[in-house]
Known about the structure:
Number of helices: 15
Largest sheet: 8 strands, mixed
Number of strands: 13
Order of helices and strands: EHEHHEEHEHEHEHEHHHHEHEHEHHEE
Shape: globular
CATH class of the largest domain: Alpha Beta
Helix content: 25-40%
Amino acid sequence: MDNICVIGLGYIGLPTSGIFAQAGANVHGVDINEDVVDTLNKGNIHIEEPGLADVIKDAVASGHLTAGTTPKEADVFIIAVPTPVYDDQTANVTYVEKATKNILPYIKKGDTIIVESTIPPRTIYDNVAPILTEAGWDLDNNDLYLSHCPERVIPGKIMTELKENTRIVGGYTEEAAEKAANVYRRVVEGDIFETTALTAEMSKLMENTYRDVNIALANELAKVSEKLNVNAHDVIHLANMHPRVNIHQPGPGVGGHCIAVDPYFIIEKAKDISPLMQAAREINNSMPDFVVSQVDKLTKNISNPKVAVLGLTYKGNVDDVRESPAIDIVFKLTNNKKHYDVYCHDPHVKQQHVPLRLHDMEEALKQADVALVLADHNEYKEMDPSVFADHMKTPVVLDTRNCLPASTGKTLIHPIGNLSGLEPIDA
């Protein structure tokens, strides 16, 4: 199998490196973080993902996977670096551009270059290709085979979905699409569809924009239901009995490296004709304030209330805090005029990965006025609700993930979609 160089060893680049190395390729991973490189070369991993540790350990031990801070010559280059957004919500593609420039000294005629990073429409044509053509490569005549193959996986199932999910490969040319598709056919069990780079870019962005819009509908329903004193969860359950309806569940907002970011990549290219996408982003971005307003209501009669925050990741059972609404909620609480005393707990997050102090469960709940569930970790879903009554000053829980059982005993649990009974706690 070809020699492969993967640029970026994060949540996508590292698992991708692992599955290719597992299949027998010689993979060299590149990351600017020396700690990440050192950790990997010892056969260890720096992120939490089921099944990843064993794959990396075996790949390093077999010699099929190495890591460094600079690229090496290879037959295939896979760029899997972040594409964050600026404060004005436009895409920052400088990481992709820098990664492309960094491989220039190592590429040769006939190499395949694949950008896996999620990117705005036309980035392959307008940003990546010019770097290569200015270096003297004729992409139209396939000196190099340039393509975009966006990842389509979810944290917690990455190792399975990298192999089983369908993949879309968009080539700068038809030949480039075929060449890149053949790279993935060596490890991917799902169908692989070849198309243009622009179509591949838009397909990935629309996948997550679709989800963002539908989550926004559920979140707006939760707000409306709070005003009308109706249980949104019952409404969703009954509405979804219709054979063509599938309303999502409301939550504290949208996070992760895809759904909370990708719609902006389309919006920036067509701001005057994308009002629905923009409205969805505004609704989902408003949810942390909505959550804080409910905590304000609960603690109206309490001075300097203590809030126990359970869960900082953007979803359950992962360690990923990228764009997490939970982090936003914590900062809004700590900067609130009510002077909340916020104690955070998350069994999946390491202290060095968040700018907040972490506490153990008992310490977080001890004498708390309110508990706020922001991630649906199994540890919380399987927890006996009596834990709240045993440790909290007032066992009142705002469950923004609707993952806890109904109120029981002394513990009063308010799901985010059923806030009709939410009243201020007595001081």
